[in-house]
Amino acid sequence: MEPSAGRCVAPTVQTDVPARLDRLPWSRFHRLVVVALGITWILDGLEVTLAGSVAAALQTSPRLQLTAEQVGLTGSAYLAGAVLGSLFFGHLTDRLGRKKLFNVTLGVYLVATAATAFSWDFHSFLLFRFLTGAGIGGEYSAINSAIQELIPARLRGRIDLAINGSFWIGAAGGALLSVWLLDPDVLDPDMGWRLAFGSGAVLGLVILYLRRFLPESPRWLMIHGKPREAEGVVEEIEARVAADTGRKLEPVTKTLSLGDPHKTTMVSVARTLLTHYRGRTTLGVVLMASQAFVYNAIFFTYALILTKFYSVPADKVGLYILPFAIGNFLGPLLLGPLFDSIGRRQMITATYAISGVLLAVTGWMFHAGHLDATTQTAMWSVVFFFASAAASAAYLTVGECFPLEIRALTIALFYAFGTLFGGVGGPWLFGVLIAGGSSGEILWGYMLGAVLMIAAAFVTLKLGVAAECKSLEEVAPPLSSEQRL
């Protein structure tokens, strides 16, 4: 644990809320949390894949008639919205509560993606894509916080990884959906892309209904001077879990001493990250930047590789994303339990290092001409089986390694940095290398990604945090906790 300066405030509240939440058996309540909150990643995967799949339809749309440059700008608008939305809503999530904001952010997404389906020109489409991104970015901050605070400590690693990996369920669904919606023999092309974006709104409505049954995070209530409300929510959760499992819940003896609620500002957040948690901040930056670069560089340019170097028809590219998506989802799902049993530091180091080595091997085989479209996709699937677990662990790390009072904003800051670095830099660089038409140039891009992943593995080996099976308050005591005095 890194040293941290405290405030001279006497503790005023003894609470057993964290211990009671962490000792709960897995139940229907936790499954509801996973489905109602974890859907965010599926929606993001759906949005990103559909946006790429409908690019041609947007250019031929009688109403929109977008140019290739305008299509690219709409993608940038989505990313910009995600970055700004994560920062804005992340700050509000820490101040106003998890439940208020995860309903607001989903509402923003719902309205914006539905409005996208009714876009009438380039500027309206650009605005609605920006707002859709803002909703998704805000979801990342609010949802990561709520999930980690409601899931028992012994299961936090595997559940968090599986949820983050579910992005690829949305990606696969988007690929399959686009094949049907964009088939001119099935639907009018101008109607197809509109229904594609409207499908996200329909799914979001179902999830908005499910979220009605989720409570505010008792941990958030606890550190915001609302101990009675926190106690009431925990009692309600315990009653639901006991009724569902038929098990008697054991009493807990472990308590946490809290002082006055800690009011945070952007300055105090920056001071906390750069002074008290400098090592963890460095770790978070390295993990997020490296995985974002590799992911976005490959994902946003894989179609160019397949069409330019393997002559895959553009209308068949979507089929190649399915095995790629399967590998990406299975990695976090199957490797996730090891992050709780073997440990965070060991598994993050291993997944980043293996991803880097396999990426370098894939780059060399591509340059040497040993691959075709099928084997190239197979290699990508293997690489990202490990890289997806690594990337999901990056989100887990930045969520659980910082105090509760600033958790959502911290997640937002790291997400924004990773998105800007990887979402802009990675695709741009690989796009330039692919345009050059030389496999040798692309090899250098693969090698850069490999070096970043391997470097992140070494940083984790030195700075990694052993957070497995520990309560969030043990990993990073609240700013108002007696442990920080």
What value does the Rg take, in angstroms? 23 Å
Whole-number count of domains: 2
From the 3D structure, determine the CATH topology of the largest domain: Growth Hormone, Chain: A
- Write the CATH homologous superfamily of the largest domain: MFS general substrate transporter like domains
Mean pLDDT rating: 87
Question: What gap, in angstroms, lies between the N and C termini?
Answer: 14 Å
Q: Please report which band the strand proportion falls in: under 5%, 5-15%, 15-25%, 25-35%, 35-45% or over 45%.
A: under 5%
* Order of adjacent strands in the largest pleated sheet: 1-2
CATH architectural label of the largest domain: Up-down Bundle
Q: What is the makeup of the main sheet?
A: 2 strands, antiparallel
Count of separate DSSP helical elements: 20
CATH class of the largest domain: Mainly Alpha
What general form does the structure show?
Answer: globular
Number of strands: 2
What does this molecule look like?
The protein has 485 residues and is mainly α. The protein folds into 2 domains: 16-251, MFS general substrate transporter like domains (Growth Hormone, Chain: A); 264-485, Growth Hormone, Chain: A (Up-down Bundle). The protein is 75% helix and 1% strand. A two-stranded antiparallel ribbon has the order 1-2. Helix 2 packs antiparallel against helix 9 (189-210), helix 4 packs antiparallel against helix 5 (98-116) and helix 5 runs antiparallel to helix 6.
